[in-house]
Amino acid sequence: MNRHVIIVAGGKGLRMGGDIPKQFLPVGGKPVLMRTIEAFYAFDSSIHIILVLPVSQRAYWKDLCETHHFALRHDIADGGETRFHSVKNGLAYVRGEGLVGVHDGVRPFVSREVIAGCYEAAQTKQAVIPVIDVVETVRHLTKLGSETVPRNDYKLVQTPQVFEVQLLKEAYQQEYTDAFTDDASVVEAMGREVCLVQGNRENIKLTTPFDLKIAEVLI
Ligand SMILES: Nc1ccn([C@@H]2O[C@H](COP(=O)(O)OP(=O)(O)OP(=O)(O)O)[C@@H](O)[C@H]2O)c(=O)n1
Ligand SMILES: C[C@](O)(CO)[C@H](O)COP(=O)(O)O
């Protein structure tokens, strides 16, 4: 079965701040994005990798690849206005049948087991996402104040989110709404069920400067 992965790195990184876009920041001396791509290559060296980047960052990425002698083959698609639009641009590079994963470029610590588990489950379930338990108490904000909710009713969602190709393409034909915070929410909006598999706790999304400190410890 053909395997594809769309690695989205088309965002602005506003919560991270700084001059260098977060996907290019070094972790253990190597740009985050290279580590993320290597994780998928280590899982399957024949996987079709599609990297989504803002057009304005293409030249910078090319320079980085030369500097770091990074030669893993990948297509490059243009970043869009939101993550939804970036994924949609990446999907245009996916042809034929098979499985397509969507992964945040800023999640370099996804484990090989989690990648394999998602692609394997998607062979029968068509739509699979990795999740982890909530380890803190959760409160719901109400009009009057706030209330504790049963945390076992909730999960934290990670990527890669893996789908049967035609299913994801059909889902991404829908009109964008801001409720689409990940790919599962887009597929669910068509009335399709999503299967949950175990994620890995280290698979953090590098979002704020604090996450970079954690990344340097995890590497
Ligand atoms: N228009 C966008 C927005 C986000 N992403 C990607 O989606 C992933 C998760 O998004 P997030 O962590 O929110 O990244 P940013 O949007 O860059 O961050 P911020 O919201 O702080 O600006 C990132 O790899 C990001 O590059 C994307 O490809 N295209
Ligand atoms: C896709 C995602 O990483 C799953 O947790 C998350 O929804 C992305 O959210 P962001 O606000 O675009 O970072």
Q: What order do the helices and strands follow? A: EEEHEHEHEHEEEEEHHEH
**pLDDT < 50 stretches:** none
Largest β sheet strand count, sense and barrel closure: 8 strands, mixed
Binned, the helix content reads 25-40%
Structural class: alpha/beta
Average of pLDDT = 97
CATH class call: Alpha Beta
CATH architecture: Alpha-Beta Complex
Shape: globular
**SS elements, strand count:** 12
Whole-number radius of gyration?
A: 17 Å
CATH topology: Spore Coat Polysaccharide Biosynthesis Protein SpsA, Chain A
Question: How many angstroms separate the termini?
Answer: 32 Å
The CATH superfamily appears as: Spore Coat Polysaccharide Biosynthesis Protein SpsA, Chain A
Name the beta content range.
15-25%
Domain tally: 1
- Which compounds are bound in this model? cytidine-5'-triphosphate, the ligand C[C@](O)(CO)[C@H](O)COP(=O)(O)O
Discrete helix count: 7
Organism: Phocaeicola dorei CL02T12C06
Catalytic activity: 2-C-methyl-D-erythritol 4-phosphate + CTP + H(+) = 4-CDP-2-C-methyl-D-erythritol + diphosphate
InterPro entries: IspD, IspD/TarI, IspD/TarI_cytidylyltransf_bact, Nucleotide-diphossugar_trans
Pathway: Isoprenoid biosynthesis; isopentenyl diphosphate biosynthesis via DXP pathway; isopentenyl diphosphate from 1-deoxy-D-xylulose 5-phosphate: step 2/6
